[in-house]
Specification:
206 residues, alpha+beta, Aminopeptidase
Length: 206
């Protein structure tokens, strides 16, 4: 699901040698959901506007997911909410949440190519966490094939698939859309800001 890095000289001036080595190891993994492995972006969450996609905007999301090698077969099925993220009118990326109970599944996190290598992936992930927690979620789950280190650095822990709750193990992503080699990861929420960012609802989706 993720990946990438920016302004090497400025970033490395703030990192220890060990951090640089770890950053280069993560960088070599490439993108998984299209997120990135850079240090925190100077942009903060308050700079990001969130729009809930209507059915007529899903095609744009699908194009980005296809380019990133991510599944698109079930985007229009019930129980999935997909969002686009912007700074002003500049498109930053997309992300989704599946489910409605205490356990939710992160779906389709992708940073658009022009915004990669700038730490945007971390901000989009944090924004999804805030949305989910404000809606009653207590844990977020995900599957990733190329960037467990990215998520681990942001509070997600690897778990055996047999430990997945039924709401997650019965999902299409868990059963058929993601490779059986994908790493299953979980984060317990509670340390994020529980006030959801303002979400603009676009027409065509209930």
């Amino acid at each position: 699901m993720l990946n990438r890095i920016c302004g090497k000289a400025d970033i490395y001036n703030r990192l220890s040698l060990r951090d640089v080595i770890e950053l280069e190891k993560a960088r070599a993994l490439g993108p998984i959901l299209g997120v990135d492995t850079t240090p925190e972006s100077p942009m903060n969450q308050s700079d990001i506007s969130v729009r809930l996609l209507g059915t007529d905007q899903i095609q744009g999301l699908a194009a980005h997911l296809t380019a990133a090698g991510l599944p698109t077969q079930d985007l229009l099925q019930p129980g999935r909410m997909f969002y686009s993220f912007h700074r002003g009118e500049t498109e930053l990326g997309y992300g989704g949440i599946e489910g409605s109970g205490r356990t939710r599944l992160i779906r389709s996190l992708v940073v658009v190519p022009a915004q990669r290598k700038s730490g945007i992936g971390t901000l989009l992930l944090r924004t999804l966490e805030r949305i989910a927690e404000a809606d009653g979620a207590q844990s977020l789950h995900l599957l990733t094939t190329t960037a467990p280190e990215f998520f681990e650095a942001r509070g997600y822990a690897q778990r055996d698939r047999s430990q997945a709750p039924k709401a997650i193990s019965s999902s299409e992503e868990f059963n058929s859309l993601c490779s059986t080699s994908a790493v299953y990861m979980v984060k317990e929420l509670g340390d994020t800001n529980s006030v959801s960012p303002q979400v603009t609802r676009l027409h065509g989706r209930q």
